[in-house]
C-alpha cells in the first residue's frame, strides 16, 4: 500500500489519511511529492488522476481524496475501530467529517496550515472566527455527547479530519473554550500527530505563500 502525499509542513489534506494509517498501525509506504515545483503536478499525475494529493494505491486499486481514502481503509480493515461502533454515532461522525471536508472556506483561505511557524492573533477576521466558533461547537457537542476524550469517545477518522485544524489553531491561536482547547491539546499529544509535525518541521523545502504571515 502506497500513500502519496505532499509536504508535511503544509498539506492538511495529506495529513488526515496519514494520521489514520499511523495511529491504527496499518502498514504503508509513503511517497512524497514536493509542492510548488515545476513538475509537481506531473509527478502527482503519475499516481492520481486529479493531479492532487493525497492518493492511496493498494493492490492495483487507486483511491483519491482524503475522505474516500479513509472510507476505503475502514472497509479494508473492519476489525479496526476507524469509525464509531454504533450506527447513530457513525452517521454523526460522517456528518462532521463531511462538514470539515466541504466547509470552513474562510478558515482554509486565511489560516493555512504551516506546522513550522507561530502567528498568534493573525488572520482573525469575522468570517474566520465564525468558522472557529462552529468548529468549537462541533467539538464541544461531540465531547459532551460521547464523553470524550476524543470526538466519539475513542480516536476515529473524525479526529484525524480535525487534526489539521488543530495545527492551524496551534499556529494562529484563536481563543477557544477550555474544553475545546483541552481537546486540541490531546490531538497534539498523539504519537502519529507528533511524528507528522516533527517531520514537517524538519523538511528543508519552503513555499513562499505558506511562509508569509497573513
UniProtKB/TrEMBL annotation:
InterPro entries on file: Glutathione-S-Trfase_C_sf (IPR036282), Glutathione_S-Trfase (IPR040079), Glutathione_S-Trfase_N (IPR004045), Thioredoxin-like_sf (IPR036249)
GO BP: glutathione metabolic process; L-phenylalanine catabolic process
PROSITE patterns with a match to the protein in the record: GST_NTER
Entry GO MF terms: glutathione transferase activity; maleylacetoacetate isomerase activity
Highest taxon above the source species: Bacteria
GST N-terminal domain mapped to chain residues: 1-81
PANTHER family: MALEYLACETOACETATE ISOMERASE
Name of this protein: Stringent starvation protein A
Source organism per UniProt: Pandoraea cepalis
Gene name, Swiss-Prot/TrEMBL: sspA_1
Amino acid at each position: 500500500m502506497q500513500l502519496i502525499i505532499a509536504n508535511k509542513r503544509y498539506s492538511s489534506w495529506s495529513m488526515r489519511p496519514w494520521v489514520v494509517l499511523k495511529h491504527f498501525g496499518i502498514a504503508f509506504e509513503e511517497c512524497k511529492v514536493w509542492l510548488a515545483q515545476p513538475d509537481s503536478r506531473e509527478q502527482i499525475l503519475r499516481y492520481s488522476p486529479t493531479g492532487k494529493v493525497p492518493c492511496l494505491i493498494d493492490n492495483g486499486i487507486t483511491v483519491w481524496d482524503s475522505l474516500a481514502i479513509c472510507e476505503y481503509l475502514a472497509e479494508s480493515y473492519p476489525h479496526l475501530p476507524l469509525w464509531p461502533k454504533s450506527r447513530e454515532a457513525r452517521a454523526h461522525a460522517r456528518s462532521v467529517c463531511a462538514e470539515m471536508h466541504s466547509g470552513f472556506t474562510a478558515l482554509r483561505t486565511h489560516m493555512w496550515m504551516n506546522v513550522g511557524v507561530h502567528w498568534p492573533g493573525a488572520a482573525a477576521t469575522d468570517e474566520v472566527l465564525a468558522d472557529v466558533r462552529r468548529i468549537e461547537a462541533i467539538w464541544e457537542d461531540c465531547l459532551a455527547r460521547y464523553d470524550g476524550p476524543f470526538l466519539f469517545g475513542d480516536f476515529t477518522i473524525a479526529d484525524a479530519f480535525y487534526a489539521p485544524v488543530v495545527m492551524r489553531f496551534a499556529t494562529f491561536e484563536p481563543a477557544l473554550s477550555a474544553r475545546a482547547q483541552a481537546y486540541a491539546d490531546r490531538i497534539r499529544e498523539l504519537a502519529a500527530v507528533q511524528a507528522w509535525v516533527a517531520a514537517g518541521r524538519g523538511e528543508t523545502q519552503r513555499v513562499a505563500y505558506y511562509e508569509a504571515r497573513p
